[in-house]
TrEMBL record, chain A:
<keyword id="KW-0813">Transport</keyword>
<dbReference type="GO" id="GO:0016887">
    <property type="term" value="F:ATP hydrolysis activity"/>
</dbReference>
<keyword id="KW-0547">Nucleotide-binding</keyword>
<keyword id="KW-0406">Ion transport</keyword>
<dbReference type="InterPro" id="IPR003439">
    <property type="entry name" value="ABC_transporter-like_ATP-bd"/>
</dbReference>
<keyword id="KW-0472">Membrane</keyword>
<dbReference type="GO" id="GO:0005524">
    <property type="term" value="F:ATP binding"/>
</dbReference>
<protein>
    <submittedName>
        <fullName>Iron complex transport system ATP-binding protein</fullName>
    </submittedName>
</protein>
<dbReference type="InterPro" id="IPR003593">
    <property type="entry name" value="AAA+_ATPase"/>
</dbReference>
UniProtKB/TrEMBL annotation, chain B:
<feature type="transmembrane region" description="Helical">
    <location>
        <begin position="126"/>
        <end position="146"/>
    </location>
</feature>
<dbReference type="InterPro" id="IPR037294">
    <property type="entry name" value="ABC_BtuC-like"/>
</dbReference>
<feature type="transmembrane region" description="Helical">
    <location>
        <begin position="158"/>
        <end position="180"/>
    </location>
</feature>
<comment type="similarity">
    <text>Belongs to the binding-protein-dependent transport system permease family. FecCD subfamily.</text>
</comment>
<feature type="transmembrane region" description="Helical">
    <location>
        <begin position="71"/>
        <end position="88"/>
    </location>
</feature>
<keyword id="KW-0472">Membrane</keyword>
<feature type="transmembrane region" description="Helical">
    <location>
        <begin position="12"/>
        <end position="34"/>
    </location>
</feature>
<feature type="transmembrane region" description="Helical">
    <location>
        <begin position="100"/>
        <end position="119"/>
    </location>
</feature>
<feature type="transmembrane region" description="Helical">
    <location>
        <begin position="284"/>
        <end position="309"/>
    </location>
</feature>
Amino acid sequence: MIVTENLDIAYDQMVIVKQLNIEIPSHKITALVGANGSGKSTILKTMARLLKPKSGHVLLDGKAIHQLRTKEVAKQLAILPQNPTAPEGMTVTDLVTYGRFPHQRGFGSLTKQDKEVIEWAIEATGMKEFAHRPVDQLSGGQRQRAWIAMALAQETPILFLDEPTTFLDMAHQLEVLNLLEELHEKERRTIVMVVHDLNHASRYAHHMIAIKKGTVVKAGTPMEVMQPHIIEEVFGIQCDIIRDPRTGLPLCLPYALSRSKKEQVHHIG
Amino acid sequence: MKNDTVNQYSRPWIAITVIVIGIFAIVFGIALSISVGAANIQLSTVWEALVHYNPNRTEHAIIQDLRLPRSLADVLVGASFAVAGAIMQGMTRNPLADAGLLGLNAGATLMVAVCFAFLPGLSYNSLILFSFLGAAVAAGLVYGISSLARGGLTPVRLVLAGAAVSALLTALSEGIAIHFQLSQELAFWYAGGVAGVKWSQLKVMTPWLVVALVGSLLLSRSITLLSLGDEVATGLGQKTGLVKMLGMIIVLLLAGVSVSAVGPIGFIGLVVPHIARFFVGVDYRWIIPCSAVLGGGFMIMADIGARMINPPYETPIGVLFALIGVPFFLYVARKGRRELS
């Protein structure tokens, strides 16, 4: 389990996140949602020890993550940053192989187990037919799956993803999200992702955390978080929440900017 | 099929082939380089001079005192510039990174000029230290300037800052050269003076360069990880800050020491790693040793060429590299235009 304790995060002097206390439940899919610039990516990166907090702690199974050996953390937690790019000419297999880094020693020759895990990660993400293709020549969805395969090869119980569906069309978005759902179901991995689409969050996540200006507005099940007044506070829009006729899960239908937001927009315009 | 997939991961056989052929080419190049020049010497005499040195024969003296140190310096310095370029390209994920383009060579040159002017008679060891510092200051300036800009570091911004800083530092060195009437001595450096390398210099610079080259091999795997991006590398459990610092120290050593010996030779660090990558792919465990061998080979061949174009005069080796390097730079810049801007 991952917990943050009174986390303050700042870039230079600008404080982005103040006194943040959140809990990431194990073996569930958690979605971080919030407007642009709300600090959700920053929170994700700090929880994954890519950024150092100004004060406070991130606890991974009770231990402060920023004090743990980074290679040990990498055996517990894999993170896929937003929009990563592979060097030109690097093949999918090359890329996935680097996922084994935390498990390797010395100059990095591959053991039998390493090879098996690499095979498996490529298969699990449906990338077998593209295994020898350069990553930079793949479509957006395939590329994203290749990176997920790399994170899978890390064999961590926890997987973080920063906007895994941005820049993808609808079919590719579903492809990635279905893959994550499958990983959760088959392997009970803890998955934490930043997502833009509220309805995706509602459908795929078990736990949602809504963030505004670096603080938690509401955390809970999609049912608890997807409420008009909460959405209005977090995103500055007015919406109707209806039930998805297939799944019974809440769906958000935005129809207007909220009043304060509207004034802002007019003011700018 | 099962093993196929994973073994494709790197291309060790191609790499080993490149290295072996490269080493043969270097050995042949050294022999050839010793025999050609203002005084042509037969290869058999070259061998004799190495095995049964006779100080009374002029040819033996030329070989031992002039040509041999020059050839060895060619190989060492060529390897160093190439490896410095490879490391910089990997660490900054910038296909245009090169000790020359990013101002390191100009910084080192300025410090050499300063030493000539203000500290004449400085030991070569201290000169290397100053040269290293010059490269470090230039690197700091270039990185500082380009990261101050809004939107942060981009490859093209780095190269622009490098060009600006290089121009400034080079102008300063030339100013010093004119004011202190050191133009003749310094002209050797600007043009890439391998010709003047002596045993005493070689003895001092070799340990530094060998240590830095070995260090670059030890760091090679970490550099491949960095080439995936800082965040990915950190996420995979790499101590990114430490690796970058070590990488930078190695680059400054390679460039600083080389410039102090032979002057700023540009483009070899830009071109050679791309050629190595063309053969061996994206893994720096192979790119770095291949760059070393190819860089050494290129340098010695270019030096031979420089002596053969217009004998008995020597064409400056820097000019030769610029002739190959400039079109190549334009090619890389065009090819990567989308990612670079």
